[in-house]
Amino acid sequence: GTRGGAAAVMQFDSSTGRVRFAGVGNIVASLCDGDGVRGMPSHPGIVGVQFRKAQPFDFADAAGKLLVMHSDGLQSRWNLRDHPGLLSRHPR
C-alpha cells in the first residue's frame, strides 16, 4: 500500500438543509436516517501529491440526518443497525 494524506471538508447550510462535501483519499462519508444510509463520494488520490481537483458534491436533503465520516481506521462496510440508538443521540 501507499502512505499519504487524506482529507474531507463538509459544509452544512442550516437555512436550506443542504450539505456540500469534498473528499480526497481514503475517506468515507455517509448521511444516515431511519430510511437508510447514503454514501458521499470521495476522490481517489493523496493530498499534496497525487490528485487533480476535488470536486464538491451537493446533497439537498441533509437536515435532520446523521453525518458519519471516517478514514481507513474504520471498516468501510459498517452497518448502522450494529449501533442501536445512534440516530437518536444528540451531537454534544
TrEMBL record:
Keywords: ATP-binding, Nucleotide-binding. One of its GO terms (molecular function) is ATP binding. This is ATP-binding protein. It comes from Xanthomonas perforans.
